């Protein structure tokens, strides 16, 4: 362009931009242009995020039922909130959720950090092993739910045969998904299998962010490998581990798809996590107002945890 | 003059120490965590009943104090 004369530059511009359009764009300020570009996103966000949230908050104070939309809506105040927060069944669902969240997070963190520590040693073929370990994370939860249902089959399932091989029990003598004691652990095992690689990835990022010179200084000071692990590796990887714990905690608190496919909340209500209870209230009992109040309670909890998560994320970013 | 000035400096010092984003965010975070624990604990239905109010208070507090100066 620099080699073009002034007249040819004018001709070039005239060809590239229609005069009417150019005049219109030239008349807009930078701020107006910026608003022009972000308005569609804001409208979309308001339509699919903010409006449904505000509408759900409104519904949570009414007796609205989605299957009887023509019935006049009555304002109930905080009645649903009071009902949910004094209901022993909902409290039990929260404890089932707590069992699921605590055990999955503990198992995933311990195994994930252990795997990350091994992969970080850069042994021969570590790239291939990393890919193999990451495979479960790349699958859809619907697929995982379905094929683990087959693996847990007492007659033909591979899982029962592996347990039978190591324990000596008959493979068909126990049902992972049908037993009241075993089913809460069945969903924990599947989630841990699927999401341990994710925790491993975050921990690996933390381990690789530790500068080598710190270990070299520790070697000079004749610190043992054990001391190096407790005094350097673990403290420096801790913000990343916290990040993984919070993220998996939030995700598992609202876990629905995998548990619904594996057990559907059964047997009885032994694996009925909060999201399954919510689905039953909303789309089986059609108590829309009640389920809206329950959804708001879960939303506030997740939002609160997300605040802590963002704080932890900022701490990691500032390193 | 000096009698008046000394307590005001002391008051400002206390406010500076307490009304900073760091300690306030830590307090809000603790309240949120307490609310979540109260929601999922198996020991007391009363604690469970107050969990939502606690989490909501902590979340609102966190949202407000995250705008406070460092």
TrEMBL record, chain A:
Residues annotated as domain ABC transmembrane type-1: 94-309
PROSITE patterns from the UniProt entry: ABC_TM1
Keywords for this protein: Membrane, Transmembrane, Transmembrane helix, Transport
GO CC terms: plasma membrane
Subcellular locations according to the entry: Cell membrane
Topology of the protein relative to the lipid bilayer: Multi-pass membrane protein
Membrane among keywords: yes
Residues annotated as transmembrane: 33-58, 100-119, 131-151, 185-207, 228-250, 290-310
Main location (coarse class): membrane
Domain of life where this protein originates: Bacteria
Gene3D superfamilies recorded: MalF N-terminal region-like, MetI-like
InterPro entries listed in its UniProt record: MalF_N (IPR035277), MetI-like (IPR000515), MetI-like_sf (IPR035906), Sugar_ABC_transporter (IPR052730)
UniProt cross-references to SUPFAM superfamilies, sorted A to Z: MalF N-terminal region-like (SSF160964), MetI-like (SSF161098)
GO biological process, one term: transmembrane transport
Family the UniProt entry places it in: Belongs to the binding-protein-dependent transport system permease family.
Signal sequence coordinates: none
Protein name: Sugar ABC transporter permease
Automatic annotation (TrEMBL), chain B:
Segments passing through the bilayer: 21-41, 47-65
Protein name: Uncharacterized protein
Keywords of this entry: Membrane, Transmembrane, Transmembrane helix
């Amino acid at each position: 362009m620099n080699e073009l004369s002034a007249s040819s530059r004018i001709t070039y511009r005239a060809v590239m931009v229609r005069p009417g359009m150019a005049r219109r764009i030239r008349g807009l300020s930078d701020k107006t242009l910026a608003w022009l570009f972000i308005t569609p996103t804001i409208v979309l966000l308001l339509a699919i995020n903010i409006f449904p949230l505000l509408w759900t908050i409104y519904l949570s104070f009414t007796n609205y039922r989605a299957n009887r939309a023509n019935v006049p809506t009555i304002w109930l105040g905080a009645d649903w909130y009071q009902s949910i927060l004094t209901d022993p069944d909902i409290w039990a669902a929260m404890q089932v959720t707590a069992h699921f969240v605590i055990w999955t997070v503990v198992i995933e963190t311990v195994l994930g950090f252990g795997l990350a520590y091994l992969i970080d040693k850069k042994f021969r073929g570590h790239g291939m092993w990393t890919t193999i370990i990451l495979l479960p994370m790349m699958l859809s939860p619907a697929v995982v739910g379905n094929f683990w249902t087959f693996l847990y089959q007492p007659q033909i399932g591979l899982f029962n045969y592996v347990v039978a091989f190591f324990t000596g029990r008959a493979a068909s003598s126990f049902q992972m998904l049908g037993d009241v004691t075993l089913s809460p652990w069945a969903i924990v095992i599947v989630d841990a299998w699927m999401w341990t690689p994710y925790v491993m990835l975050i921990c690996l990022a933390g381990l690789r962010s530790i500068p080598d010179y710190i270990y070299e200084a520790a070697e000079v000071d004749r610190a043992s490998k054990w001391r190096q692990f407790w005094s350097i590796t673990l403290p420096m990887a801790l913000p990343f581990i916290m990040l993984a714990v919070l993220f998996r905690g939030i995700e598992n608190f609202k876990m629905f798809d995998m548990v619904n496919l594996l057990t559907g909340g059964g047997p009885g209500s032994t694996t009925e996590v909060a999201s399954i209870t919510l689905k039953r209230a909303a789309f089986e009992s059609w108590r829309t107002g009640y389920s809206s109040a329950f959804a708001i309670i879960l939303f506030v909890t997740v939002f609160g945890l997300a605040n802590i998560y963002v704080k932890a994320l900022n701490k990691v970013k500032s390193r | 003059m000096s009698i008046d000035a000394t307590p005001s400096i002391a008051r400002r010092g206390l406010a500076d120490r307490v009304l900073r984003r760091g300690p306030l965010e830590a307090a809000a975070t603790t309240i949120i965590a307490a609310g979540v624990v109260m929601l999922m604990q198996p020991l007391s239905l009363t604690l469970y009943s107050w969990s939502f109010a606690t989490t909501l208070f902590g979340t609102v507090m966190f949202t407000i104090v995250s705008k406070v100066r460092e």
